[in-house]
Design a protein that fits this description.
Elements (H helix, E strand, L loop, with lengths): L1 H7 L18 H14 L5 E8 L4 E7 L10 E2 L4 H7 L4 E3 L2 H4 L17 E9 L2 E10 L7 H31 L10 H18 L3 E8 L2 H8 L1 H18 L5 E6 L2 E7 L3 H17 L2 E2 L5 E2 L3 E8 L9 H14 L5 E3 L3
Parallel strand pairs: 12-13
Antiparallel strand pairs: 1-2, 1-6, 2-3, 4-5, 5-6, 7-9, 7-12, 8-9, 10-11
Helix pairs in contact: 2-5, 7-8, 8-9
Length: 340
């Protein structure tokens, strides 16, 4: 019924036709198609799809129509118009947003400024749980008439089960690739991403680097402070590495006190600079313990890059491991490079 309903209301070449192929695809693409159709089909000037996290009372934008003022990733705060609609599981309609909003942010306190005529927020509800919202706007007041309100609400209702399934699958897949203690990616995800980047370098050229990180004297921490403090130190190190890494880097925990960074399109010199910055950052930030004290934490770093200086792809990880052990032999809390 969903697809038949959509097809009879528009030309056969509509962008909604690919919906039939998206059940095993990514939810962001589906959401982006819905946003595009809010503009092309229903005459809205802007549209966005939000994913909401009820337990945190926050959300973020996962898709927007072309030339929208906000970007994908825009946060959604609990006191915003969209946040309140999601938190209260109620539809919000401002036919004259300039009069109704009273300086209330649409998505969050930190958002760009733009002019809105009419605004409609339709929560995406499944089994009484709010999964997100469909947010549409017009440039002129009164632009969301009754028949459009019904159509957009129905669209939101119809897309919700599909998004729920895709988001649920995405969550399960992410958990399978995430380290439970630190929240970083796990070994499985790192190995998949490394294989993908090595293949890309072989096919198209370029370079890829890895940085192995091992927390110095970690056994002493466990022996002296116990398991709980050891976990706190690992969480502290993971937070520092995540903070200091670039947005394109993959940061993972391999197990125990060993971590790794995958640095796409990075030569060995650039990887060395990243590792040195992380080493300095970690050294400057002691770990805060539960008793209010702080514990100095350092780590050793081994750096390798493919195809130079490591010319064989299956030697990349062993070369980084050898560089890591060289750092440990040289007194720890330092960075060493693979020699190829």
């Amino acid at each position: 019924f969903f697809f038949f309903f959509l097809m009879i209301r528009r030309p056969p070449r509509s962008t909604l036709f690919p919906y039939t192929t998206l059940f095993r695809s990514d939810p962001e693409r589906l959401a982006a198609l819905v946003c595009a159709d809010m503009v092309s089909l229903y005459g809205m000037q802007r549209a966005a799809v939000v994913r909401w996290q009820p337990g945190r009372a926050t959300g973020h934008v996962v898709a927007v129509s072309a030339r929208h003022a906000v970007a994908i990733g825009q946060s959604v705060g609990p006191l915003s118009a969209v946040g309140e609609a999601c938190a209260e599981s109620r539809q919000l309609l401002w036919q004259d947003a300039a009069q109704a909003r009273d300086d209330q942010p649409i998505f969050d306190d930190v958002e760009p400024s733009w002019s809105i005529g009419a605004l409609l927020v339709v929560p995406l509800v499944r089994d009484r749980a709010v999964l997100g919202a469909l947010v549409v706007e017009t440039d002129h007041a009164g632009g969301i008439r009754e028949h459009l309100l019904r159509m957009i609400t129905l669209m939101a209702d119809l897309m919700t089960p599909t998004l729920e399934s895709l988001w649920s699958f995405e969550d399960v897949e992410r958990r399978a690739r995430t380290d439970a203690l630190t929240g970083l990616w796990n070994r499985r995800h790192f190995e998949v991403e490394l294989a993908r980047w090595l293949q890309q370098v072989d096919r198209y050229g370029g370079k890829v680097a890895i940085v192995l990180v091992d927390v110095d004297h970690f056994k002493r921490v466990y022996d002296s402070y116990g398991h709980e403090t050891g976990d706190l130190v690992l969480q502290h190190v993971s937070a520092v590495l995540h903070e200091g890494a670039r947005t394109v880097d993959v940061v993972a925990r391999l197990g125990g006190e060993e971590f790794v960074l995958l640095l796409p399109s990075t030569p060995v010199e650039g990887a060395r600079d990243v590792a040195e910055r992380l080493r300095t950052l970690l050294e400057s930030k002691p770990a805060a313990l539960n008793d209010g004290t702080a514990l100095a934490v350092t780590a050793s770093f081994g750096v390798a890059a493919y195809p130079a200086p490591v010319a064989q792809r299956d030697r990349l990880v062993p070369a980084a491991d050898a560089a890591l052990y060289a750092a440990k032999r040289d007194g720890r809390n330092c960075v060493r490079l693979a020699v190829g």
